[in-house]
Write a structure and sequence with these properties.
Chain B: It comes from Candida verbasci. The complex is a heterodimer of chains A (about 140) and B (about 140). Chain A has helices at about 35-45, 45-55, 90-100; strands at about 20-30, 60-65, 70-75, 80-85, 115. Chain A is of the alpha+beta class and about 140 residues long. Chain A has a four-stranded mixed beta sheet with strand order 2-1-3-4, covered by helices on one side. In chain A, helix 1 packs across helix 3 (about 90-100). The longest helix of chain A has 12 residues, at about 90-100. Chain B has about 140 residues and is mainly beta. The chains are: A alpha+beta (about 140), B mainly beta (about 140).
C-alpha cells in the first residue's frame, strides 16, 4: 500500500491575502507624571481615534499605570515589543505607532542578499551530463 | 533534463512564439521565474519569494499591492524570453505585496582623530522594505 507523505503548509503572509502581524497595541500612561503629557494629549485630542480608524486590523488598548509611558506592541508570532515614549509629543508618538505597526515582530536583521526564497532552483542542479557528448571535457 | 538543450535550439529553428513555448514548458506557471527591475536593479523572483529592499519605498504602506513596471526576462527550465526594454505587460500577470517596513539593526561607527582621545559615535539604522511576490503567471 502506498501512503501519502504529509506536508506541513508554509505560512507565507502576503501571498493571496495579507494579515497585519501587529494585532494589538497597549498604550500605557500615567495620570500624574509629566513624561506622559504627550500621550495624554493624544488620548484627549482625538488623533488616536483617527489613527485607529485607519488601522482597523489592530486593537488599541489603553491602560493607566504609574511610571513612564509605554507602547506595548503584540505580534502574531508571540512576541512583544516595548517602546519607551517618555517626554514625546503627540505627533512623535503617532510616528512611533506608525513605525511599529508596520513591523512583523521578527528580530531585526540585515539581509545581505536580494531575495529570500523557499522554492527550489528554477533551472535545476547543473550536471556535466547536460553537455552534448562531443563537447564534454575528456580526461 | 537533457531535453533542455534540444528545446533551446528549436526555438531559433522554428517560428513558434516564445510565449507559447513558455506556456507549455512552465508546468502551469509553477516553474516560472522573472527578472524584474526595481529602481533599475535586477531581481530574480518566483512566486512566494521575499524581496528585501534596503530602503523605504515611497508612498507604500504595509499590505499594498505593488506593480512592476519593467520585467526584462521570463523563463522556465527550458525556455527564456529576454527583452531589453521590458516585456509587454499584457503577456503576464505579476505583482507583489508589501509585507513589512522595518529598520536594519543599529550600527555604530566610532570616529577618532589622531592624537585626540575624544571619540564621536555615529548611529545608523537604515530602513528596510520587505515585499512578497504575490502573483507570477502567464496570461
Amino acid at each position: 500500500m502506498v501512503k501519502a507523505i504529509p506536508k506541513v503548509s508554509i505560512a507565507r503572509n502576503g501571498l493571496g491575502s495579507y494579515i497585519q502581524p501587529c494585532y494589538k497595541i497597549t498604550l500605557q500612561y500615567c495620570n500624574w507624571g509629566g513624561s506622559s503629557q504627550g500621550l495624554r494629549d493624544l488620548l484627549t485630542n482625538g488623533k488616536l481615534n483617527q489613527f485607529a480608524l485607519n488601522n482597523l486590523q489592530t486593537i488599541f488598548e489603553i491602560k493607566q499605570q504609574r511610571g513612564h509611558p509605554l507602547l506595548i506592541c503584540n505580534y502574531n508570532n508571540n512576541t512583544q515589543h516595548e517602546v519607551e515614549i517618555k517626554n514625546l509629543s503627540d505627533s512623535e508618538i503617532i510616528k512611533k505607532l506608525d513605525e511599529y505597526i508596520q513591523r512583523s515582530g521578527n528580530e531585526r536583521f540585515k539581509y545581505n542578499h536580494k531575495v529570500m526564497s523557499d522554492n527550489d532552483s528554477v533551472r535545476g542542479i547543473w550536471s556535466p551530463l547536460f553537455e552534448p557528448k562531443d563537447h564534454r571535457h575528456k580526461i | 533534463m537533457f531535453k533542455r538543450f534540444i528545446t533551446t535550439t528549436t526555438t531559433t529553428a522554428t517560428s513558434v512564439s516564445p510565449i507559447n513555448l513558455l506556456k507549455y514548458s512552465s508546468n502551469g506557471s509553477r516553474d516560472l521565474y522573472a527578472i524584474a527591475n526595481i529602481h533599475n536593479l535586477p531581481y530574480l523572483i518566483r512566486k512566494g519569494d521575499l524581496v528585501y529592499l534596503p530602503y523605504k519605498l515611497k508612498n507604500v504602506k504595509v499590505g499594498d499591492l505593488i506593480d512592476f513596471k519593467k520585467i526584462t526576462t521570463i523563463g522556465s527550465p527550458n525556455v527564456t524570453l529576454n527583452e531589453k526594454d521590458g516585456i509587454n505587460p499584457n503577456l503576464l500577470d505579476i505583482n507583489a505585496s508589501c509585507v513589512e517596513i522595518t529598520k536594519e539593526p543599529i550600527r555604530v561607527k566610532i570616529n577618532k582623530k589622531q592624537r585626540c582621545r575624544r571619540t564621536t559615535r555615529i548611529y545608523d539604522e537604515p530602513y528596510q522594505t520587505v515585499i512578497r511576490i504575490n502573483e507570477l503567471r502567464l496570461k
